[in-house]
């Protein structure tokens, strides 16, 4: 039985693996007094190559795991789910507010672009869904959107190969067609990608503005909590509650690497 959430209730965040930690980090920075729950579906990562039917089923499972902890809001820190199953999360979590990284990132890209030529990189499922182009063109039909799938970025991030020569070569290969289109804005359309941001930025060059959808969704969450009077009133920061569906030890290692912070206990949950 769902209790009515209060301002002190936690915010639930889920992703297919460790990528959503970029959202957790952005939320901690912007909203340090909020209690955060994080679920990474490490048993079934990656979601990007899976079918829409499977992704929608996983989205419902992930939402139900967070709902056990009575959150006041759910953030979908997975672009693949944001693109293909946001409605499933909204229906499962109803009446709680649900925010997806995709729309937040698309809106910020529209604000930032000067030459109206935006590049989007994401998983195969996100790119094939055309959801970023749709969201960007809904905001401004005059913008040209160029998308490319970067399937190897997720395993590179998950393996912690943040500054590796292989990552650099693959980034050059993936970004070359977008840079040839003279984009001035690049959306990191997968929450794993900010983990590789240094290499992506270096490859794209100083003329291209990078849009991190993790930062964009954290800003949107802050503004929604502010407008509804649901911000937490704690004075000290609390450690997040971390949950995974497999390999808690590996998750702890990657958490330390990405967050540059000591690791709270990681709970193993069944999906």
List the helices and strands and how they pair.
Layout: E1 11-15, H1 21-30, E2 36-40, H2 52-67, E3 73-76, H3 79-84, H4 86-93, E4 98-100, H5 101-112, E5 117-122, H6 124-129, H7 131-139, E6 144-149, H8 153-158, H9 165-180, E7 185-189, H10 197-204, E8 209-212, H11 213-228, E9 241-244, H12 248-259, E10 266-268
Parallel strand pairs: 1-2, 1-3, 2-9, 3-4, 5-6, 5-7, 7-8, 9-10
Explain what this protein looks like in three dimensions.
- By secondary structure, the chain is an alpha/beta fold.
- The protein is 46% helix and 17% strand.
- The chain contains 12 helices and 10 strands.
- It has helices at 21-30, 52-67, 79-84, 86-93, 101-112, 124-129, 131-139, 153-158, 165-180, 197-204, 213-228, 248-259; strands at residues 11-15, 36-40, 73-76, 98-100, 117-122, 144-149, 185-189, 209-212, 241-244, 266-268.
- A 6-stranded parallel beta sheet has the order 4-3-1-2-9-10, with helices on both faces. A 4-stranded parallel beta sheet has the order 6-5-7-8, sandwiched between helices.
- β7 (185-189), α10 and β8 form a beta-alpha-beta unit.
- The model has no long low-confidence stretch (mean pLDDT 94).
């Amino acid at each position: 039985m769902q209790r009515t959430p209060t301002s002190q209730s936690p915010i639930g965040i889920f992703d297919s693996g460790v990528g959503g930690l970029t959202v957790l980090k952005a939320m901690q920075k912007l909203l340090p007094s909020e209690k955060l729950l994080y679920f990474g579906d490490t048993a079934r990562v990656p979601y990007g190559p899976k079918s829409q039917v499977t992704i929608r089923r996983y989205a419902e499972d992930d939402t139900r795991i967070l709902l056990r902890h009575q959150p006041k809001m759910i953030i979908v820190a997975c672009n693949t789910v944001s693109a293909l199953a946001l409605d499933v999360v909204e229906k499962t979590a109803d009446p709680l507010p649900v925010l997806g990284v995709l729309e937040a990132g698309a809106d910020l890209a529209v604000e930032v672009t000067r030459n109206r030529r935006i590049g989007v990189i994401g998983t195969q499922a996100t790119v094939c869904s055309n959801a970023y182009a749709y969201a960007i063109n809904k905001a401004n039909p005059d913008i040209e959107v160029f998308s490319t799938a970067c399937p190897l970025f997720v395993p590179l991030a998950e393996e912690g190969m943040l500054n590796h020569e292989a990552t650099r070569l693959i980034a050059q290969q993936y970004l070359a067609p977008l840079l040839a289109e003279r984009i001035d804005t690049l959306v990191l359309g997968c929450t794993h990608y900010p983990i590789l941001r240094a290499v992506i930025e270096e490859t794209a060059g100083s003329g291209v503005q990078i849009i991190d959808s993790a930062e964009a969704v954290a800003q949107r969450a802050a503004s929604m909590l502010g407008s509804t009077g649901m911000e937490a009133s704690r004075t000290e920061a609390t450690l997040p509650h971390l949950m995974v569906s497999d390999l808690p030890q590996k998750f702890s290692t990657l958490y330390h690497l990405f967050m540059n912070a000591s690791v709270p206990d990681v709970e193993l949950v069944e999906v």
